[in-house]
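Question: Send over one sample?
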Amino acid sequence: QVQLVESGGEWVQAGGSLRLSCSASGRRVSIYAMAWFRQAPGQEREIVSRIRMNLGTTYYADFVRGRFTISRDSASNTVYLQMHSLKPEDTAVYYCAAAKEARGRNYGMESLYDYWGQGTQVTVSS
């Protein structure tokens, strides 16, 4: 089994920056892509960004494009989310997800991902 462990979530003022990390550990498995989702209170979980581990190709949701950057270290199966210009509406629990194989391009579909982290809280105050 693969475990995903997120870190880096905390309280920050609007306009600030945070860097989230997610490391995959456990049974050696080839990871095709990793992604960040988020879920705000009372809302559905939504995709934030995704990266393909071998090529580094990325996807961003419109609401974070230009503010967030996803990157990866393929050797260690670690993915990062650098967040700048944070807004109160970015407040959410951020989840890391990993897919073992390609399953289409509807990146926001949770069924595309095989493993999930426990989440890390990001709180942005105004």
About this structure: The longest strand covers residues 18-26. The mean pLDDT is 94. The radius of gyration is 14 Å.
